[in-house]
Amino acid sequence: MPDDLTHPTDQRLTELEIKLSFTEDALDRLNEVIVRQQAQIDALVREVLALRSQAASGDAGQPPFRSLRDELPPHY
C-alpha cells in the first residue's frame, strides 16, 4: 500500500490545509490592524469634537479661535 501523502487527493488536502492556516493568520493580523485603526479614529473624533467645542465656546482665559488667513500681511 503506498504512503498516504503520495496520493494526489491527500496532497491537495494537505496543500489546502496549509493555505487555510496562512489565510487564517493573515485574517487575524488584518483584524488587529482594523481594531487599532478604529481606536485611533475614535480618539481623533473625540479630539476634533473637543476642539470644535473649544472654538464654539471661546473658552474663558483663551482667546477665540482665529484662522491665520484672517491675518494676512499687508502686501496681500
Key phrases:
76 residues, mainly alpha, 1 helix, SlyX, coiled coil, SlyX family protein
Short description:
By secondary structure, the protein is mainly alpha-helical.
Would you give an account of this structure?
This protein is mainly α and 76 residues long. Helices cover 66% and strands 0% of the residues. It is built from one helix and no strands. The longest helix is centred in the middle third of the chain and has 50 residues, at 8-57. The radius of gyration is 29 Å and the shape is rod-shaped. The termini are far apart.
Ranges where pLDDT stays below 50 over 5 or more residues in a row are none
Order of helices and strands: H
Could you tell me the strand content as a percent range? Answer: under 5%
- Please identify the oligomeric state: single chain
Overall, the morphology is rod-shaped
- Overall structural class, as computed from helix and strand content, comes to mainly alpha
Could you tell me the radius of gyration in angstroms? Answer: 29 Å
Mean pLDDT: 85
Give the terminus-to-terminus CA distance. 91 Å
- The helix tally amounts to 1
Largest β sheet strand count, sense and barrel closure: none
Considering DSSP H and I runs of 4 or more, what fraction of the residues is helical?
55-70%
Number of strands: 0
